[in-house]
């Protein structure tokens, strides 16, 4: 039991995850700047350290010592609290993610996971919901029109796609029968897949749920092409327009932290987390390789975030909200029902029934995807007639 472990184990796991998270965030900032620069035929960071790898540390140092300019009209305590909420919540959401296999140290065996909660998936959703408070309070406390409009946009966007993410994770919970993250990873690693020779990753039978979560995680992190709350041509810098120095850096770091967090969550829930081929001696198979597979899978999704930023233009805000409320959420609702039917029939029939129900659910989701734009256009026409 986790509660039976000594205190030093909990401290060690927290420090390892904290260090892993900070290093990954710094590398993401540097890697995105380098990669986008190469895509746009620029150099990117190249002066500080080999290949400019220390540029992130220099920028952080600069922001730490930069003059803190605070407008006179702001609500002081709330103005200070908002960036703290965003940064702290980004760290807390990472607590339920296992980043490696079992480790044996000083006679104690434990996994590299800060807290294996029995409501692990709900913890992630709860942290995402609390993150909205930091953004709303930042816009409200600035007592300025543009930050307030940016925070309203951001909160509406995050709440909308938080619902979509919740529906996608509800499918995972129904299919796996548990909210515990470690058990979800264990099922994907230790149980046979739908087809022989293919891993039992939940992204295969729950593919519509994965697509819904993918759209939701991009929109919730406010990354391009869904970065309307920070539309420079309309709202200057969005909710953090009146922030500078270290406070702005905390919002900046929270955004990149959330990119890594949602990438780790999608890997954990849909792509087996730390599971993968193991070989070699025990220390390699139980410690090094699980972490390697986790980092590799997470890197793939982080790369997708960077690729989207470099290739896709920003869409309009009304298009974003229409996509969420009229397409993604309805498809998520249909797929949750299909997943429940899949699980019920699988408990009473042969395993082949799961494939049949998965196909039916997929057809329903695709049909709704096709019909949603038609229904949306028809509703607008009817409204115009009235």
Can you lay out the helices and strands and say which pair or pack?
Layout: H1 7-39, H2 55-65, H3 76-93, E1 102-105, E2 108-111, H4 120-141, H5 145-176, H6 181-190, H7 207-220, H8 232-235, H9 245-270, H10 282-311, H11 317-348, H12 352-385
Antiparallel strand pairs: 1-2
Helix pairs in contact: 1-9, 1-10, 2-9, 3-4, 3-9, 4-5, 5-7, 5-11, 7-9, 7-11, 9-10, 11-12
Describe what this molecule looks like in 3D.
With 386 residues, the chain is an all-alpha fold. The protein has one domain (2-385). It is 69% helix and 2% strand. It is built from 12 helices and 2 strands; from the N terminus they run H-H-H-E-E-H-H-H-H-H-H-H-H-H. The chain has helices at residues 7-39, 55-65, 76-93, 120-141, 145-176, 181-190, 207-220, 232-235, 245-270, 282-311, 317-348, 352-385, and strands at 102-105, 108-111. Strands 1-2 form a two-stranded antiparallel ribbon. Helix 3 runs antiparallel to helix 4. The model is unreliable at 382-386 (pLDDT under 50).
Key terms:
disordered C terminus; globular; 12 helices
Number of separate domains: 1
Shape: globular
Broad structural category = mainly alpha
Query: Using DSSP, what is the number of strands?
Result: 2
**What's the gyration radius in Å?**
22 Å
Give the distance, in angstroms, between the N- and C-terminal Cα atoms. 63 Å
Question: Main beta sheet, described?
Answer: 2 strands, antiparallel
Instruction: Provide a count of the helices.
Output: 12
Q: Which sequence of strands runs across the widest sheet?
A: 1-2
Oligomeric state as shown: single chain
SSE pattern = HHHEEHHHHHHHHH
The percent range for strand residues is: under 5%
Low-confidence stretches: 382-386
How would you state the average pLDDT, rounded?
83
Helical content band: 55-70%
């Amino acid at each position: 039991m986790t509660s039976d472990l000594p205190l030093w184990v909990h401290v060690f796991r927290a420090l390892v995850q904290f260090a892993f998270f900070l290093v990954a965030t710094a590398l993401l900032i540097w890697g995105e700047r380098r990669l986008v620069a190469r895509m746009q035929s620029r150099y990117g960071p190249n002066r500080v350290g080999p290949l400019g790898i220390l540029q992130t540390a220099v920028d952080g140092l600069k922001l730490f010592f930069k003059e803190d300019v605070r407008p006179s009209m702001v609500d002081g305590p709330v103005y200070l609290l908002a960036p703290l909420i965003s940064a702290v919540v980004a760290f807390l959401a990472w607590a339920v993610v296992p980043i490696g296999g079992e480790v044996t140290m000083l006679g104690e065996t434990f996994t590299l996971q800060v807290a294996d909660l029995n409501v692990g998936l709900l913890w992630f959703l709860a942290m995402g919901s609390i993150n909205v408070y930091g953004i709303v309070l930042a816009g409200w406390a600035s007592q300025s029109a543009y930050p307030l409009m940016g925070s309203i946009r951001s909160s509406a966007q995050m709440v909308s796609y938080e619902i979509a993410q919740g529906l996608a994770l509800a499918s995972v919970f129904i299919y796996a029968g548990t909210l515990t993250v470690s058990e979800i990873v264990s099922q994907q690693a230790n149980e046979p897949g739908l087809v022989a020779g293919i891993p039992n990753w939940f992204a295969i039978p729950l593919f519509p749920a994965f697509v819904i979560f993918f759209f939701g995680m991009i929109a919730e992190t406010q990354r391009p092409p869904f970065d309307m709350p920070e539309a420079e041509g309309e709202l200057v810098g969005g909710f953090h327009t009146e922030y500078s120095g270290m406070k702005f850096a905390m919002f900046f770091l929270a955004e990149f932290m959330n990119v890594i967090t949602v990438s780790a969550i999608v890997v954990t829930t849909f792509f087996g987390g730390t599971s993968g081929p193991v070989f070699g001696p025990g220390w390699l198979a139980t410690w090094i390789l699980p972490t390697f597979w986790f980092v590799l899978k997470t890197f793939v999704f982080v790369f997708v975030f960077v690729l989207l930023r470099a290739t896709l233009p920003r869409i309009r805000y009304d298009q974003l909200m229409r996509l969420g409320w009229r397409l993604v959420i309805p498809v998520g609702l249909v797929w949750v029902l299909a997943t429940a039917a899949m699980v019920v029939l699988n408990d009473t029939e042969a395993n082949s029934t799961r494939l049949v129900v998965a196909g039916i659910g997929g057809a329903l989701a695709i049909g709704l995807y096709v019909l949603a734009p038609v229904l949306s256009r028809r509703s607008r026409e009817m409204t115009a007639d009235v």
